[in-house]
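Operator note (shift B, R.M.): manual run for 3-dehydroquinate dehydratase requested after the automated queue skipped it. Running by hand, logging everything below so the morning shift can see what happened. Input copied straight from the record, untouched. If output looks odd, do not overwrite the archive copy; leave it for review.
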Amino acid sequence: MKILILNGPNLNLLGVREKSVYGNRSFEDYFEELKEAFPALELSYFQSNTEGTLIDKLHEVGFSYKGIVFNAGAYTHTSVALSDAIRAIDTPVVEVHISNVYAREAWRQKSMIAPYCKGSISGFGLESYRLALQYFERLKPKQIGFNV
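Run finished. Output pasted below as returned.
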């Protein structure tokens, strides 16, 4: 089962930026751990700081992959275009955040993408990704489809 982990802006700096919020591990190191923990899933990873590139990736895999785990970073709270892209594809998306967005600034507490995602996970550090992958791993193939 093909699953994409898609990370948005500034997540390429995990392990070096705001360690008190985001921890001290790079996502690349954590991704290796995820691949070992989920051998039944065919995991791929992509990160971009550019909104259009994230949209292109959603379009690229959004009709062929079985799931997308998406941390849109700050675009979560601002991007109608990403919201529209998620709405347009067939592949279910689970929104993830490393920090608890509801314990942060008020503007971070509104997600533009959440209404078009299967669900949202936030506040568990990098383990938010593991929780999302567990969701996809436990689904039976006929349960994966999701349309708003």
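Quick read of the result: The beta strands are 2-7, 42-47, 67-71, 93-97, 119-122. The chain has one domain: 2-140.
Leaving this for review. - R.M.
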